[in-house]
Amino acid sequence: MAQIAIIGGGIGGLTAALALRQSGFQCEVFEQAPALLDVGAAIAIWPNAMRVLERLQLSEKILEKAGPIEAIQWLDQKGFLVNRVPIPTAVALHRADLQSTLLHALPDTAIHLDHAFVNYKQTDDQITATFANGDSVEADFLIGADGIHSDVRAQFINDGDPIDRGYTVWRGISPTIPRLIPPATAIEIHGRGKRFGIGPVGLGRLGWWASANSSDTDLPSLFADWYGPVLELIGATPKKSILKTNALDRDPIKTWGAGRMTLLGDAIHPTTPNLGQGGCLAIEDALVLAGCFERYGATEDALRNYEHLRYARTAAIT
What we know:
With 318 residues, the chain is α/β, with parallel strands linked by helices.
């Protein structure tokens, strides 16, 4: 039976491992972190990704920890309602809760922590990955799912750093819910050069994100005159847990792999967070990849067909 090595134990890598194993293939995940800690902010699982998780028989476990989203509202910075749209089944949850659910659906023997990828080498019928701890693994196929700063991509394409789109994004999770926030609703608030998003993440919490054409770290000052719940959420969130990043992506490219290697998720098609689809696209990738292995067998044709099937959709979202 074909052996598949996956580099990266994030959402994409773990979902790919689960999908491939459910399709009858042997695969193992190699993650650089020494432990998968309770870190990260909220992640939205929109209907396209929820359908994949249902196929993988994980939707019930996800719903135990998630907050349902039944509508999206757009407000101006004073809280005036601009638009409201009902949506099909969608949820949001803490990224760590999603990662934990995926992790516990896999056998312990399939996960290898403290394995920082160094390089890979291909022969006609095998591919070998080497790690910083001195270990190496021989496999029939290698999947690079190691995120926007992918080391697998760097060896394959060597196309430099992602593109900085010129604005800053903050993410946090509040343990309290302001009185004015309606249930089961995602909210996006717009002002000049700034935005603020809010969504339920289950277990009595709200996830939020902010973006601004500024790197100023004083969020209360940036949003001082905004809709009241904005400052309530910022104030209720422990400062040390607030994540701050630049908005990054890459221009789409059609070449995702060669030989017995391919890329998945943010390693190949990172996108800015505007549609909340980065993780969802990685989840989609995983199911399509497994389906191509089922249809074409353990062959390089499976990888090339996966890449062909995914390019147009991911490029359009990016």
